Description:
Strand content: 5-15%
Helix content: 40-55%
Distance between the termini: 51 Å
Strand order of the largest sheet: 3-2-1-4-5-6
Largest sheet: 6 strands, parallel
Amino acid sequence: MKAENEFWVGYIGALGHSYDIKLIIDAIKILNNKGIDNIVFKVMGEGVLIDEFKAYAQTQQVNCEFTGFIEYGDMMVNLSACDVAVNPIVGKSVASIINKVSDYAMAGVPVINTQNSPEYRKLIDDYNCGINCESGNAQSVANAIEKLYKDKDLKKQMGRNSSKLAEEKFDRNITYKNIISLIEEVI
C-alpha cells in the first residue's frame, strides 16, 4: 500500500543485462542526497541480476522494493499507483517498441526513458508522455525524476498523454484490426 507522502518510481520486466537498474538507483541516490528522501523504487520482475541489484540498492541506501514476479493484473495495479515509470535500457541495446512500453502507457504514467530507439523516443516526444534522458547518465535521470516530482501538473498531464498513447497505438482491439487490414491489402 502506498503511503500518502511516497513518490513511487516503477519498473516492470526482466532484471538482466539489458536493463540499467543501477542507473535508476544512482539517480535516486542523487535525489536522496538533495534531501528528496521519500522516493520508493518499485522493481517488479525477476532475472539473473536480481541479487546484484538488491545488494547495490542496499549499498547505496536507496529505498527499493523488489517484488519478484507478480501476476499481471496485480503488477498493473502497482504500476498504475506509481508516479512515474522508468525504461532504463542500456545504450547498446537494439530494442525498439517492447511490451513494457505498452504496459506503461496502459497504466497512464509518465515514462522516464533512456532507451536509444528512435521510434520510442519519438513517441515519448510526440505524445509528451515522458522525458527522454541520456543513456547511462544518472544526473540526467535524476533531473527528470525531480522535474516530475516537483511539477505535479506536468506529471498529471504526461500521465493523461500516456493514456492517449495507449489508446491510439497499443489498444489491441484497434491495432489487430489494422494489422489484418494491412495483411489483406498485401494478399
